[in-house]
């Protein structure tokens, strides 16, 4: 078996959009484990949210990418309370002119109760989501012109602002694709497979040797990506973990047996 590393988004990809179950992906997950293949979970979730999932799936021996690439949790590392990077980030935010700072409301401003109210998460889940180590999500309540000034002020302190589906997230840079390259390089992986269903997965999917867009029936469809024309990137016909299971098994068949990557199963 060649050296392989699989990188996967969670919500809507490996986890069902509605139930958050990964059970339909169990056959492919077991196949990865039996072949000793690295699975790197790559999510917007914090370490406090992601590490228990990694353990539940049986991949404690693999690193994971947290907070949309702002940080990496090493193999076997527990979700700690170390927040040096986050403290530095929030210090930079505090240096903003007050007229701009007050227009940005974030997880640190809300606390667990506020996060639960804004996100719809249960209280314990909101508490875990608030344990930021590398980034700070929030909402912008000012004008577009004020936002430009806010982002420019942050850039002077090397803080990056990135729009997601719901939040404006601040960090010191790096995304899922950057972290994927870092981990794959350390593992000397010959093949990388990246799977995701949302715009914040695009860079990771395009940077992998093989990419999969998981069908998402709950949001806007992903635009056509670089690599789809030559079939380096394919789409699944099924949603969520069922599509994930098909795609990972198909990829392993391709690597192990020479099966054509873009033909042979109904992937869309």
Automatic annotation (TrEMBL):
<keyword id="KW-0460">Magnesium</keyword>
<keyword id="KW-0378">Hydrolase</keyword>
<dbReference type="GO" id="GO:0016787">
    <property type="term" value="F:hydrolase activity"/>
</dbReference>
<protein>
    <submittedName>
        <fullName>HAD-IIB family hydrolase</fullName>
    </submittedName>
</protein>
<dbReference type="InterPro" id="IPR006379">
    <property type="entry name" value="HAD-SF_hydro_IIB"/>
</dbReference>
<dbReference type="InterPro" id="IPR036412">
    <property type="entry name" value="HAD-like_sf"/>
</dbReference>
<dbReference type="Pfam" id="PF08282">
    <property type="entry name" value="Hydrolase_3"/>
</dbReference>
<dbReference type="InterPro" id="IPR006381">
    <property type="entry name" value="HAD-SF-IIB-MPGP"/>
</dbReference>
<keyword id="KW-0479">Metal-binding</keyword>
<dbReference type="InterPro" id="IPR023214">
    <property type="entry name" value="HAD_sf"/>
</dbReference>
